[in-house]
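Data availability (excerpt). The following record was deposited with the supplementary files.
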Amino acid sequence: MTDQAENTTGLADFIFGTLASTEDRVEAIIGAGRGLGAPTLAWRDGALHISLSAGPDAPIEEALLHYTLDGNDPQPGVPGTIVRAFQDVPPRWDTLLWGYVRRFELTIPTGQLPPHAMFRYRAAGRTRDGSIVQAADGRRFSHLLGTYPAPGWLRGAVIYHIFVDRFATTGGAPFAEPANLAGFYGGTLRGVIERLGYLSELGVTVLWLSPIYPSPSHHGYDATDFRKIEPRLGTEADLRELVNAAHARGMRVLLDFVPNHVSNEHPFFKDATTNPESPYREHFTFRKWPDDYASFFDVKTLPQINNENSTARHYVIDSAVYWLSMFGVDGFRLDYAYGPSPDFWADYFKAVKAINPESFHIGEIVETPELLRGFAGRMDGALDFHFLQAVRKAFAYDTMTIAQFNDWLGRHQAYFKDANFALPTFLDNHDMNRYLWAARGDSRRLKLAALVQFTLPAVPIIYYGTESGLSQERDIRQGALGILEESRQPMNWSAIDADLLAFYKRLIALRGSLAEALAGMRITLIADAAHYAFGYAVEGKLVALTLINRSPEQVTLTLPTAPGKWRDRFSDREYADGTPLAVTLDAFTGTILTLL
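Predicted structure:
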């Protein structure tokens, strides 16, 4: 699957996800829009607002919401179920659906909702002849009322994404040389422990580890046990030592967790497919037992967990609780979080926050911003794939002007402003071409993108090796295939790009000193086709500036500023009082200025 914006080589960027192409998006819009869709929920003006849309194939006259506040399943006629009628609002014409879409809204004042209760709900419509049409095929939705503010330690955090098999071996031994990139290179938890000095010196504050559970693959996203550690990677003692050592250095540790699917070698699945009386049959969704079952993107080796089954749900959620309570990890990156239902995530969020309210839980959700915002109250945030695509277009491919990028960024930030939903940013990951490869090896373009990333309020993520110049040998797009392993080369400890590493160290240190400024108001000073200058104002006073020159020529950017002395935080040059402020930048360079 590919994003449609092409780079300068004529190849489209590869972004893995269900809405990666225009065709995917159109199909999803039409499929979801024609019937009675899923109810959407938002907090606004001291009330809970619920909306519902009925497409041309759902000719309903009335819309109803059934909900409970005691955690029980909302069903008509069942004690504890409250029934409320939606208000009808004017319909709208939808050209893509070629029909009118009915719209319904319901507002419930906060005072009618007890804090931290589990709000479970279903929506339905009634047609003119009295028949009932279930919204979203009768699915149940849940939302944990009240809010959990972002953990305090998240402010100023920098996350480092470690692919354990490819990061560091025990004792610094050479990586193995498997027959192909899908083999095992020999990275271990002990190797991560031994490189904590490097990570601490770099300045990162959070380690995100790829899956460490028993698995037949190098990546681990196909676990055979959610509560053990893959022996190739280490032991429980190694993980405890890593968590304790990281905490001693002021770092947090996130694990990668996959609640949507398992390996077909998982004992539960093997029993479910071989034993007609297996207690695990309902842990999976069989269309025709034993060979036809739901799986992740129809990959038969990745059977999908039926998280609507209460026993399966408890197993998955209790497994997450296990790592939080027994090992003291600080949260999870949640793989393919769009797979399990919103009802599942409400139960998950309640359970993990009960163990540690300061734990952090971010989803991998490659979907629309509208859908992302709906996960507020079900997890702490989601990886910002939308920023990823925009920043690569603007600084790696030149398919978006700086003015367009700035406009997009302003709208994006405004859309999530009041959502209480973190959107950590990243430039690359293990499922796409590395940024340096996308930028055709030009580290100047990487520095520009990182400069923007690290001077925005969102928590930045570094994919292992990006800071040291690690790239890849071939594109992941090879004919009709996407060979994701190309972007998972082992860390090259003997070929560190010293200049790039020094840049990242300075950038991370600067971010730590800019925490107060980044909480202020972002103001755009220049945003044309190739030049960018934005700053942050605290209490009405401009205190920090980010300057970018994406052009192939040296330029002087002239900025109107308030009186005061400014310092270039990379060159240490000082600018005396006076307006305007003129800063000269070489081709494809940028800098940060702060008010003294």
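Summary of structural features: Residues 1-11 have pLDDT under 50 and may be disordered.
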